């Protein structure tokens, strides 16, 4: 029983790790269990095909490469791929890119766990089941997980890009087979009479371990990428952060402005007025002057990506003015604007503020957004900004 527990433990541990990585929209446990079991069952057709195709007497380097990549890696990864593609992929619960990794790892761990049981029970001469179990705990089993992540990353992309789904799925299968084959090829070289044993030992470390490590690194990178997408979908403000800006950030503020303003104001103001206001308020000189007049600027980030900015200043000791608040069109509707306002409100409350005011164009749909987060219209004003142009605004206020 101890040997069986040793064989099962690493696969279950990796399953739990992946399950808890899927923190924002977890898959039904029943689906995961079935995927695991189906993955385990693919051991039998894979073993049959490998036994039928592999000639143990053919130990040349070319024969080893063919065996590693086509008779083992391709056969085993095709089995796991079939489980994901034909059982997990069509499920309604497969509703975000991260699910591709989750289901692929479950299928891979089912395969690796049953394979591991057979390995520790049927030990080779000179090795104990415990030695085999401990060795595979840190090599073969996590390697299967890495191959699963590589396959699942592209399966997740395929699900949400139907026009290119076949190419994404094949790409995932290719990379799983490539890293699996490379790992096995260097292991198989130990049995080739064409390779000196000392050389084979070096190749085992350099080749198999490097393939394994690269696969693991890519796996963690892919998990992080899809997990961030999941987080942005279900808890979009979790990845947001703000920092205070200074004069060195003026080029960044201008870059964001020119990405945001045309789409925000093209249906409200003429192109000539937009161009005039950009020159008036967002030239380097204008922004420098605003900062010198104690306008506090902040930059908003989604992860490492700058996605918006805001500025505010003191009007009276109790009243602060939000002069600017802009986020990229791709961020709108995700709670980013509310996040900014909430952060600013928390900051100005510590300074004794009782209200936050802002101006919004009377034709700007943003008025509804501000009302939704607690602002109310307190008056209207028409501001002459020169060159025959006016800002026709509501003044809105939020009590803090």
Give the number of DSSP strands.
7
The major pleated sheet works out as:
7 strands, mixed
What is the count of structural domains?
Answer: 2
The Cα radius of gyration reads 30 Å
Roughly how much helix do the residues carry, as a percent range? 55-70%
Taken from the alpha-carbon principal axes, the silhouette is elongated
pLDDT < 50 runs, ≥5 residues? none
Secondary structure category: alpha+beta
User: Per DSSP, what share of the residues sits in E-state strands of 2 or more residues?
Assistant: 15-25%
Q: How many helical stretches?
A: 14
Compressed to H and E, one letter per element, the order equals: HHHHHHHHHEHHHEEEHEHEE
Strand order of the largest sheet: 1-2-3-4-5-7-6
Could you tell me how far the N terminus lies from the C terminus, measured between alpha carbons in angstroms? 64 Å
* Average pLDDT reading: 86
Describe the overall structure:
Helices cover 62% and strands 15% of the residues. The chain is α+β, with helices and mostly antiparallel strands and 400 residues long. It folds into two domains: 2-234, no CATH class; 238-399, Aminopeptidase. A seven-stranded mixed sheet has the order 1-2-3-4-5-7-6, sandwiched between helices. Strand 4, helix 13 (336-349) and strand 5 form a beta-alpha-beta unit. Helix 4 (61-88) runs antiparallel to helix 8 (165-188) and helix 7 (140-159) packs across helix 9. The protein is elongated.
Name its key features.
400 residues, alpha+beta, Aminopeptidase, 2 domains, 14 helices, 15% strand
Which secondary structure elements does this structure contain, and how are they paired or packed?
Blueprint: H1 2-21, H2 29-41, H3 43-53, H4 61-88, H5 98-121, H6 129-138, H7 140-159, H8 165-188, H9 197-234, E1 240-244, H10 250-265, H11 271-282, H12 284-292, E2 296-302, E3 305-314, E4 319-327, H13 336-349, E5 355-361, H14 366-372, E6 376-386, E7 389-399
Helix pairs in contact: 1-5, 1-6, 2-4, 2-5, 3-4, 4-5, 4-7, 4-8, 5-6, 5-7, 6-7, 7-8, 7-9, 8-9, 10-11, 11-12
